[in-house]
Structure formats: structure tokens, C-alpha cells
Amino acid sequence: MKDKLRQGETLFAAGRIKEAEKCFLNIIEQDSQSKEALNNLGVISFQGHKIENAIDYFDRSLKLDPFYKDAVLNYAYILKELDLLHEASPYLNKIIKKYPNDKELKQLLNEIEMAQKPKRKIAVLCLPGLESFLGDIVDFLQTRYEVLTCYTNNNRDIEAAAHWADIVWIEWANQMAVHVTNKVPQIKDKKVICRLHGYEVFTDMPTQINWSVVDQLIFVAKHKQQIFNQKFKIQFQPQTILRNGINTNKFTIAENKQNTKQLVLLGHINFRKGLPLLLQFYHELLKHDPEYYLYIRGDFQDHRLEVAALTMINELSLNNKLEFV
Asked: How far apart are the first and last CA of the chain?
């Protein structure tokens, strides 16, 4: 039977799933006590999205040997996918005594324990219209915490959110942070995180924030942290740099996408976006390939920049090679 098992596992590793399944089923017909074959059939069933069959195979394997680690782990992971990991607790508690140092078993038991504990509550506070950086962060936090988002400038709602939470996340070191750290009495009893993005260091708002109630200050870039510390001389030590990230899975290009040589600039237009430099690069690009065309969608946030950009467009003869939409 061992040779037959090895044969089936070799077929499985080679991606010949149907042949491997047939091999394991043949073993079961000859030896219904083969815990290994039952476990392997459970894996094949799970990969084939036959969840009930998979659970049945793992269950039969574990009835033969409750200490068979492969089956315990596979059974636990399938229950985890179904959000039923707690049902694997009896098997995990039993087998951990045999394998006390096994990291996977410990991790699964820890996840069960954490799931059974009441989740800590975190309130995410942000002024309306400035919450665009929070989507993926909130999604992640919700896997570990009970999360309340409060994107408002309504003082009553802000105070209620702070009162409800164990942890308060203040997005931007701006007017929201000034108000919450000075005017919301509940905040002194909470763990408080403040995330500073960038423009705040060029204002005087950090001097108005009551840093004594803030437990952690997050920067999105090291140079912003350096500017903050050089400019404000605030005696505040718990600082962390967490760079902004992009979930690239949200941006896909269709396989049949044709290169149209149409370019788009999208967003608020201010000096930080480097529009004058972009126009120079675009001017050079057109010398190599005049078929490119640029669309710009966004509002100018500085009238001087708008005048400068329109002047450049005219002087570089780009009028017929771009448009504002």
C-alpha cells in the first residue's frame, strides 16, 4: 500500500489530479483503514470545491487516528475557510499535547482563542472628503477589531464615537486632531493614534494638538517626520513611519487591451503634482512619437499654477495635443 500511496502522491504533485484520485480511491477499496488515502482524498475534494466530501474524508481519517497531524491541519484549514475554525478545537487541543512545539497548531489555537474574545473597538475619525486613504486600512482593521468609521465634522457624532471606542484613530494631524485632543473629554481614557500625511507640517496645526493624549504618531514618509521634528520641537517620542501603499489588484489591464497612446492625468492639480515637469516630459515624448494625446481632468487649486501651466502649453505648442476634460 505504501507504494500505491507514493504513486498517488506523485500523480497529485504532477497535477494529474483525476489519476491521483482514482489511485487513492482504489486504496480505500482495498484498505478502508488507510488514514493517508482518506486525507489525500479530502485535499483533492477541497481543491475541487466539494466541501462536504472533503469534510467527510478528513473526519473519517481522524476517527482512525485523532493524532494524525496532516488530517488535523487540513481539517482545521477547511473549517477556517468556512469561518467554523472553533469546531476543530477538540482535535487541536488533543494533538497539541503530542506536538507541543508545533507552530501551525499553536497559531490555529491562538486564532480560536482570539475569535472567542470580544474584539477591541476602534473608531476611525476623519473630516468628510479626506477619507480616501482609509479604505484598505479599514478593511484590514475589521479583520481584527470592531470598527466604527466617523467621517464627519459633527461634534456630537465625534464624541459618541470616541466614547464608544477603546482605540481612536485620527486621520490627518489637522482640525479633527486639534478638536478631538482638546475638546473631547473621553479621549484621555483611550489609546489614540494620529496619522500625519504631509500638508499639515506646513501649517501651525501641530502646535495646536494636545500631544499628551496621543499614544502613537504615524508618518507616511521619513522626510515628513524630519520636517515635523525640526520645525515644531515637540517632545513626542512614539513615532512610526508607515508608507502609503497601493493595492495593485484593483488595477488590471484587459488581455485584449489595445495601446491607444492616450494618456490621462486625473486628480486635483496643485504644485505637489509636478504639472510643469509633466508638460516638459510630454513635449519631449511628442518629439519621439507625435501620436500620443494627453487628457487632464482635475481642478486647479492654485491660480498662479494655472496661469503658468496654460502659458507653458501655449509656448510649447501643446494646445492641439492635450485637452482639459
From this structure: 71
